[in-house]
Specification:
It is a single chain. By secondary structure, this protein is of the alpha+beta class. It contains three helices and four strands. A four-stranded antiparallel β-sheet has the order 2-3-1-4. β2 and β3 form a beta hairpin. α1 packs antiparallel against α2.
């Protein structure tokens, strides 16, 4: 089943530039093959639940490996007994 997830990475303690870590996470998302939309405060993805959860774990692991000592990941997930598309949710407003 296809789900939607909004992912917001908040690096807390890092020796480097926090925005570089966020940018690297966005690259991971874009390279994941999942449909995504980058927004000012979070990035929204849609795909099979297993793949979305795998991506979230990858973002966590890669951000910690990249020099971030502590992070928060805020996640909003919309799941249903049908495939979900964020395009269906926003097309009437575009």
């Amino acid at each position: 089943m296809q789900i939607n997830a909004a992912i917001q990475l908040l690096p807390l303690i890092t020796a480097g530039n926090k925005y570089d870590l966020i940018d690297a996470a966005i690259v991971l998302i874009k390279n994941s093959g999942l449909h995504c939309r980058v927004c000012p405060f979070e990035t929204v993805v849609e795909g099979e639940a297993k793949e979305v959860y795998k991506l979230i774990e990858q973002i966590q692991n890669e951000t910690l490996k990249a020099g971030c000592d502590e992070l928060l990941i805020n996640i909003k997930i919309h799941a249903a007994n049908r495939n979900l598309s964020f395009e269906d949710k926003v097309k009437k407003f575009e």
